[in-house]
Structure formats: C-alpha cells, structure tokens
C-alpha cells in the first residue's frame, strides 16, 4: 500500500508521499527553497526542510511535518491561551531566524517586499498553515507567500487568525471585544512587540486585510482560477467587514 495523501487547499493541490510533500512550483520557489535551507541551517525547526525542485521544475519538494493542520477553525486546540502564546512565540522564532537571511539581487517573491524589510515574513501564518502537535503549534507550512517586510505586518495577520479578530457576524467564532483585547494582549506580549507596535497592531491588521483583498483581485484579474473563485464566493466581503470592525472596536 502506498503511503500517499492528497490535500486540496484554498489555492494549491499538494501531495504527500511518505515524508515528502510535492507542491506546485512558481517563479518564487527557488527563493523559498533557499529560505527554508537557511532556517534549517540556523536551527529553526518550525518549518519544512527543503529538497529542491522536481526534475521538470513543476514541483517544489519539502519535508512533511507530522501533526494536525488547523483547518477546522472550531477545533478546541486553536482557541486555548497556550496555543495562542505558542503561535506568537513560533512566529517570533521564525522572524528572528530570518533576520540574517542573505538577500540576493535576483531573488523572486510571490508578494512584494514591504519596508522596513526587517525580516522575511511568512505572509500567511494562519491556523490553516500551522501544524499542531499535542494541542500546540509546532511549525508553519506553505511558505509560498514569504516576502521581506516588517515584523508587525506578519504578526498582525497571525493575530487576526489566532485571537481571532473576526467581526460578530462570523457566527460561533467571533469573540466579545473585551475577550479579544485580552487575547490580543497575550499575543503581543508572547511575541515581544514593543508598546508602540502593540498599539499599532489592530490598524495594521485592518490594512493587511485590505491589501489581501487587493491582491486577490489582482490575481483573479490575471486569470488565477482559485482567486477568481474566492471572489465569486465573497471571501473579500468577509475580510473587508473584519477590517472595518477592527478599526471601529480596537482604536
């Protein structure tokens, strides 16, 4: 019997064969492979080990990280304080590990760089790209959206997903404002954000969601079927509603 699984996410179809994962490759994949190699070299274990590209260049090969990926937003382990703190610390560890990443003039990223380019952002460090073991986040996967940028830009989106900062019409998942504020404070403390960055995080999260919608529209306009489907399904309305709610309630 072949030890093989097929995972169909929001954008990509990914295949696991034993301890190896085959992902669709893009122009940015060589840079992502180099980034993953750097993370392993400096001792950061919360990302897959890279194994290069397939012979025909159509697939990126990475290590399979055992555990459960947080696709089920209602799963209890996604909402404990211990999980929230662990996610913040894991993201901080990732960022610290990328600070010495050697940049190259010809490197390509799927998302544009943002200034100040303090670290390499994951770009989508959400529950659905987080591996959980024993109820806690232990690694991030899917580095396609990695790009140079500010720590806060990345932290804001991870907080949005892990606190979470969802508007009240997100039935069963949104939190009372006071509870969300308390969990947000736990996240910023665990990451180690400064007081000024902690205060700026809600506004940055709202800006991050609007930038996501702009990117979805750009990708759909370029003919990407997954993003066209997301827009047709109204995902952008969710993000824009959340952005407005964050700005109104977390000033």
CATH architecture of the largest domain: Alpha-Beta Complex
* Number of extended strands: 10
Strand order of the largest sheet: 1-2-3-5-4
Poorly predicted segments: none
The total of helices stands at 7
Mean pLDDT: 93
- Helical coverage, percent range: 40-55%
CATH fold call of the largest domain: Aminoglycoside 3'-phosphotransferase, Chain: A, domain 2
Q: Summarize this, please?
A:
With 251 residues, the chain is an alpha+beta fold.
Give your account of this protein's structure.
It is a single chain. The protein folds into two domains: 4-63, Phosphorylase Kinase, domain 1 (2-Layer Sandwich); 80-249, Aminoglycoside phosphotransferase (APH), C-terminal lobe (Aminoglycoside 3'-phosphotransferase, Chain: A, domain 2, Alpha-Beta Complex). Helix content is 43%, strand content 16%. The protein contains seven helices and ten strands. The protein has helices at 29-41, 81-98, 151-162, 177-191, 195-221, 225-232, 235-249, and strands at 4-8, 13-17, 20-24, 50-53, 59-63, 68-69, 119-121, 130-133, 136-140, 147-149. Strand 2 (13-17) and strand 3 form a beta hairpin. Helix 2 (81-98) packs antiparallel against helix 3 and helix 3 packs across helix 5 (195-221). The longest helix is centred in the last third of the chain and has 27 residues, at 195-221.
